[in-house]
Hints:
46% strand; 5-stranded mixed beta sheet; mainly beta; 10% helix; globular; 13 strands
Amino acid sequence: MKLQTVLATICLSVVWITSADADNQAVANQNLRDTKLFIAENDGGKRRLTLLQGATELAAIDIPNRITKDSLVRGIKEAVWTSNKNAVAVAFQNDSQTFAVVFVQRNDDGFKASDVSAVEAGNFGKLGSKPGNFQRFETKPTEWLKREDGLFQVVVQTKAWDASGKAQAAREPLIIRNDGTPLFR
């Protein structure tokens, strides 16, 4: 396969390939363990977010069509990794909602990708309003919290601006089981 498009950011490369372009795998390192987030698009336009270590796929999840390429690049750039690289959280924004994903290492050393987009609704509940009542908003992971019980916990923040430009924010410390199951409140 031939490399079709490389979208670079300062610290990492987001590589877009089509299913007909798999011979050249020039993918930059995301971190010291050679683990990276990879976006693949097939000939039909279907996209997948994949966690790779070297050339090995650890886990993957389909990306909704409503998410733009610009949002994908921004989300990858702002992905939040745990200090030991056994989990990563990433969010992709569009005008009406966010697609948020966590990849966590399971007990069997495999990884699981989970859609945790529902955390955004909880944050809007804390703000006391619906997304449509704001001029704009953004939801993204901000940090992983350390735990000693084998669970993962990531803080996801939603910041929303009203028509006057006043911002409000709500944060949710989302717990994820080590099998990848999110525990929503």
